[in-house]
Amino acid sequence: MADISQNTPVKPEERSRLRVALDSDFAYQFKKSPVAIVSATMVLIMMLCAVFAPLIAPYNPFDPGSLNLMNGFSAPMEPNAFTGETFWLGTDDQGRDVFSTILYGMRISLFVGAAAVLFAMVLGVTLGLLAGYLGGWVETIIMRVADVQLTFPAILVAMLIFGVAKGITPVEYRDQMAIWVLIIAIGLSDWVQFARVVRGATLVEKNKEYVQAARLIGRGSGAIMLRHILPNVLSPVLVIATISLALAIIAEATLSFLGVGAPPTQPSLGTLIRIGQGFLFSGEWWILLFPAATLLALALSVNLLGDWLRDALNPRLR
User: Fold this and answer.
1) Percent helix, strand and coil across the chain, each rounded to 5?
2) CA distance 46 to 52
3) Is 30 part of a structural domain of the chain?
4) Kindly report the CA angle at 46 between 86 and 181, in degrees rounded to 5?
5) Residues pairing with 95 in the sheet
6) Which of 49-53, 76-80, 152-156 has the lowest mean pLDDT?
7) How confident is the model at residue 239 (pLDDT cuts 50, 70, 90)?
8) Residue 152 DSSP SS3
9) Residue 93 counted as domain residue
10) What's the rounded mean pLDDT across residues 53-62?
11) 5 in a domain, yes or no?
12) pLDDT digits (tens, 9 = 90+) for 166-187
């Protein structure tokens, strides 16, 4: 009798999703790009340091009970003349460890930047889909508002929105709501580029066969936009979001440096730079240098990663 098992076809092993992702063209391009690897590693390290700041920071710089004014203006890696304590990156005028303040400040900068970009992306993608798919007066109103906003610098728009929102906020809640007002201000100043890109892509996609087929089977406009058109216009949106993250972090630092951003009770990197700038010419250079270098490294890493992502997702460059 013939062996039945010999005639049974053997199914090839199903590759895991992780293996499929590692073998993709996207992963291959990432592994072949030293700039992408270094920038992604830097961004990941800084994000982890910010998230786990309470565990990594040797001190809680914003706990008044743990501060010692005698440690003020301690130079990096030099024992304090009064207490004998040594701090890696020195201390500021209030005796706060600069390394710890950078970790906590980076949390605020990353949170504000990521939340502002997410808000701008949701608003811009929604308005871009409506303008591109519906057309008519809806498109005219949305795009004319976008054109008017583009005539003003984004930082001025953010300052105007921040000032108006802070003005209508009760005084007792201003410090508590300052971070959220800052997110809304930056987000409202940055939605235009998402809307313009999504509108252009939607104008192309809505005339394709799969959209016409969805209309023939009775799909509504909302379902067509969300389930059919939106997945096909997300690639450029992700690239814009990555690049906008660096711009949002810089915008937050600029507003905080000008004194209209994060409150002193929740200082970001921009606030720390503003504080350090006041002591630069008196010899305490480290109070400004290290927060500024951290902001530069963070913005540059995110920018380089966004540039690589734009090239990797561009089919014309493959």
Assistant:
1) 70, 0, 25
2) 10
3) no
4) 105
5) none
6) 152-156
7) confident
8) coil
9) no
10) 88
11) no
12) 778 787 777 778 888 889 889 9
Average pLDDT score over residue span 255-272 = 83
Query: For residues 62-101, b (16+ Cβ closer than 10 Å) or e, as one string?
Result: beeeebeeebbbbbbeeebeeeeeebebbbbeebbbbbbb
Res. 265 pLDDT band, cuts 50 70 90:
confident
CA–CA dist 77, 91 (Å, integer)? 10
Element (H, E) at 103: helix 98-134
Q: What is the DSSP letter of 258?
A: T
Task: Give the list of residues 6+ apart from residue 214 with CB closer than 8 angstroms, or none.
Answer: 223, 224, 228
8 has pLDDT over 60: no
Smallest CA-to-CA distance from 165 within 185, 188, 179 is with 185
Q: Considering its fold, how many domains does the chain have in total?
A: 1
Count of all residues that appear for the chain in the document: 318
CATH number of the structural domain spanning residue 254? 1.10.3720.10
Residue 201 class from Cβ within 10 Å (0-12 exposed, 13-18 middle, 19+ buried)? buried
With respect to residue 160, please indicate whether it lies within any of the assigned structural domains.
Answer: yes
User: What domain range is 167 assigned to?
Assistant: 102-317
Question: Which residues, including other chains, have CB under 8 Å from residue 315's CB and lie 6 or more apart?
Answer: none
